[in-house]
Amino acid sequence: MNRHFSIKREATDRLIKLFSLKNDEDDLMPENDEVSETPWKILVLDTHTKQILSPLFTPNQLHQHGVTLFVDIDSLRSPLPLTAGLYFLTPTNPNISFIQTDISSHLYDSCYLSFLYPTQSEFFPDLARAVASCTPTDYIKGVSEEPLDFLTYDHNFFSTRLTDTLFNLLRPDVDSGAKDNLLKQIASSLASVLLLLGIHPIFHSSPTEDSQSLTRHVTSFLQSSSSHRPKYQCDVFIFDRTTDFVAPLLHPWSYFGLINEVLQFSPARVCWTDKESKTHVENLNGDTDPFWSEHFRASFEAIGPAVKKCWDDYTAESESVKRSVQQDQTNDTAIKKLDSLTDTKENLDKHTLIAAEITNAIKTRQLDVLSTVSENIVRGTVNEDEVRQIAGLDESSDPSHPIHRADNADLVRMLSLLRLTVPMSSPTSALVSSLEQSLSALDIPSFSAYNYIKRNTTHSAPSPESTTSGRFSSFISKIAPGGQFRHQHQRILNDFVDNKQSAELRAFHVSSPPVHPPPPPSDTVVVFELGGGTVAEYLAFTAKDSRRKVIYGCSELLTASSFLDQLTRLENLKS
Amino acid sequence: MDRTREFLSLVSSFQSQPNFVRDPAPQTPPTIPQSFVTFDQRSKQINKMLQTAAQKIGYYKTLLSQKSSITDSTQSLDTISSSIKSDISMISSSIKSIDAQTKNKEWSPIMLNHAKAVIQILNKRLTPILSSFQECVKKQTTELQRAQERTQEVMDMSGPKVTRRRAKGILSDRRPDLVPQDSSDEPIQFNPTYPTNQNQPNVFMHNSFGDEPFQTPEELLGASDFQPLITERREQQRSTTLQTAHRTLNEISQMFQNMGRLLAQQRDNLQLIDYNLDHANVNMDMSIDQLEKARSKQKNRRKRIIQILLVIFVVVLLIGLLVR
C-alpha cells in the first residue's frame, strides 16, 4: 500500500486541532457550544515551540484560527481578560512556575495547556501540584501532549531542534549519561515523527554503537506511548554521519545547496547581510512560493533563465491586466488578478535578490570551479591541473580561463575531500601531500578539522573494536571512476531497494518493536542521519526519479562550515 | 494525546490531601473595563453572525443551482439574498463600530493589540463571504437577464410561433445536452396541434437537436407555465429583483473597496512567527531603554534644579550677609 506521507500537513492539522480548543471528549459531543463561545485566544510559546511553529504557520494563518496574539512565556505579560490562553510549551520546570504565576494572577479567562511529547513521568504530577495550590482550579480546560518536537523543513524533511550533535556525539570527554541524554533527545524527535505519521518502523540501523542505541531509545518511546496506533509499516534507516564524511564536504551547485552554503538557511526562511550591512530575512516556503517549490532542486545556472522567464510572464500578464482595467473600470476579475500578480512580483524580487547574493559569493569564492572540482574528486576523475590552480600551487594558469586561488577554508575542505577519497597508492596522493604541506604552513583555523579527518582515516579495514579510528575508510574503495556519483548512504538504500545483499547492507542491524496485528506495509522509507544531514543528500534521496518515496530526517542540518567547525573543536579538545 | 481527564483527577487528588497547602494570599482578579467587556461580547456576536452568513450563502448557492430563473419564482432567492445582504451590511457596520472602540484609553496595550487583531480577523472572515455572495448575485443577475430576454421574445410573439433561440433557451434550462450549435433567429414554424404520428418529420420534435425523441413543448415547460407562458406578475417580480441585484452588486463593490484599503494596511511584510516575536521583543527592549533614558534625564533635571536652587540660596544668603 502506498501513501503520500506529509510531516508538514500532519503537524499543521495537529496544531489546528489544538487551536480549535477541542479535546477528544468534545469530538463526541458536537453540540458542545462552549468552544464557539471562546473564538479568541492568545498563544503562549517558549523559545523551542516558537521555532517549531514558525515554519508551519504565518501570523496571518494564526489569525484565521482565532489566535489574536502570540507571546513569549518569559516576557512581561499583562492580563488579557475574557480571552483563552493557549499554552504550547516544552515540558520544563521553569514553565511550570510560569503557568502557576499566570493562574494565580488571573492572566487569562481560561487556560489550555499543551506540551511537547515526551514528558517525563514526574512532569504532570509536578504541574498538577503547582496548579492545585492556586485558587481558581477550574481554570484549566484542557491538557494535552503533542508529538511535534522537531523542525519541519518541508513535507518530507525534518530535523531535531538540536545543534552541534556531531560534536557532542563524538567528543571523547563526554560521559555516558550525557551522551545517552542527547541520544534520547534525538530519539524523541524521530519517535514524534513516527507517532505523528502513524508509522510502525522496521529499523535498519547502521553498525555503529550510537545508531543502535538511538534505535533502542526510539523503540522504547514508541512502546511506552499509549496512543501509538500505527497505520502503516515503513522501513526506517538510521545512518551514522561518521560513516560518510564526504557529503558535508562537497561544494554544492544546486539552488537549495548554494542557499544553505552561502546564506543562513533555517526552516522556511533565509537570512543574509548584504554589502551595505543590511539584514534581509525572506520566507522560503514551498506551499506559498511556487518558484521555490519548482526550482529548489535545479542547478544554479538554470535559476537565472527561470527567473527571467517568470519575469517575462509576469510583465505580459500585468500589461494585459492594466489594459483590461483601463478599458473597463469595474473589471473584477482583472482586479482579483492584481493580488496574485503582486504576490508573484514579491516572490520574483525575493529570488532575484537571493540569486544576486549567491552570484556574488560564487564570484568571490569561485564556487563554480570548486563545485566542479569536488564533483570530479568524488567521481574519481581528479583533474590535477585544476586542483593545483585553484590551490595556488601552479601559478602558470591559462590566461583565457584565469583561476584564482580559493579561500583557505574552501581549500581545507577540498583537501579533506581528497584525503577521504584518494587512495594512498594513487598517483594523485603526491598532490594531496603537497597541498597539505602548503596549507599546513598557513595558520588556518579549520586545518584542525583536516587533521581530525586524517587521524581518523586509515586505509585498512576497520577493526571491530575501533570507535572512531578507521570509520571513514569504507568510502575509498567504492568509487567507480567516471560513473554517476551516489552518496554512500544513498547507495546502501539503493541496494536495499534492489534487494542486493551487499556487505554494507548486511552489516545493518534490523529490528522492529512488536506489534499485533502488523499494519499494512508502505513504500515510503524514512531515512535518518544521526550526526547531521546535508542538503545534497536530501535532494539525492528525494530526487524525482527515486524508486521509493523518502522522508529525510537528521539530527541537524549541516553546512560545510558548521561541519568543519565541529571537527575543529573535536581536534582541539584532543590537543 | 489528550490528558485533560488524567490531569484534572491528579489536581483534585492533591487538593483532597488533608495537609495540602494552598496559595495563602489569592490575588484578586484584575478589574475589566466595561467597554472591553462590551467589545468582547460584540466581537463574539459578530463572529457568530459571520458563521450564520456563511451558512446562508451555502444555502443560497444550492438554491441557485436548483432553481430555474424561467419557470420558478424568484421569491425564495430574493428573500435569502436580501437577508444575506442585510446581514453583511450589519456585520460590516458592527465591525466599524467596534473598531471605533479600540481607541479607548482605559485599555491596556495588550487589550488594544488584541482588539486590533480581533477586528483584523473579523474583516478577514468577512472577505470570502463577501466575495462568494458577490459571485452568487452575479450569477443570479446573468440568469435573470437571460430570462428577461427570453420572456421579451415570447411576449413579442403571437400564437404558437417559437423562435429557435427560445427553444434553445428552454432546452438549455432543461436539457443542456440537446442545445443546437447554430444561432439563427429564424422563427420555426410548426404545427400548433403537434402531430402524434412519430413518423412525420418535424423539426422541433425530432432529431435535429438530439438523437432521442423527447417531450412535447407542453410537457417540456409544464402545462401551467405554457398556457399563460410567463405571467406579467412574474415578469415584474423579475425586473425588481434585477434592479435590487444591481444595487446589491454596487454596494458589494463599495464594501470591497473599503475593505481592500483596510486589508492592504494589515498585510504582513514578513510572515514569520518567531521573527515577529523577536522583533516585538527588540521593540520592547528599545522602549524599555528609552524609558530608562527618560528616567535618568528626569533625574538629572531634578538634580540640576536642586543645584540651581542651592546656588540661588547661597547667593541670597551672601547678599543678605553683605546687606547686613
TrEMBL record, chain A:
Q: Which family does it belong to?
A: Belongs to the STXBP/unc-18/SEC1 family.
Q: This protein is called what?
A: SEC1 family transport protein SLY1
| Superkingdom to which the source organism belongs | Eukaryota
Give the SUPFAM superfamilies listed for this entry: Sec1/munc18-like (SM) proteins (SSF56815)
UniProtKB/TrEMBL annotation, chain B:
Q: What is this protein called?
A: Syntaxin 5
Topologically, how does it sit relative to the membrane? Answer: Single-pass type IV membrane protein
Pfam name, any one: SNARE
Q: Which Gene3D superfamilies match?
A: 1.20.58.70
Which parts of the sequence are annotated with region: Disordered?
Answer: 174-197
Keywords in alphabetical order? Coiled coil, Membrane, Transmembrane, Transmembrane helix, Transport
Query: Can you tell me where the transmembrane regions are?
Result: 305-323
* Subcellular location as annotated: Membrane
- InterPro entries assigned to the protein according to its UniProt record, in alphabetical order: SNARE, Syntaxin, Syntaxin-5_N, T_SNARE_dom
Q: Any signal peptide, and if so, which residues?
A: none
- Looking at the record, the residues that make up the T-SNARE coiled-coil homology domain are 232-294
The similarity comment for this entry is: Belongs to the syntaxin family.
Output the SUPFAM superfamilies linked to this UniProt entry: t-snare proteins
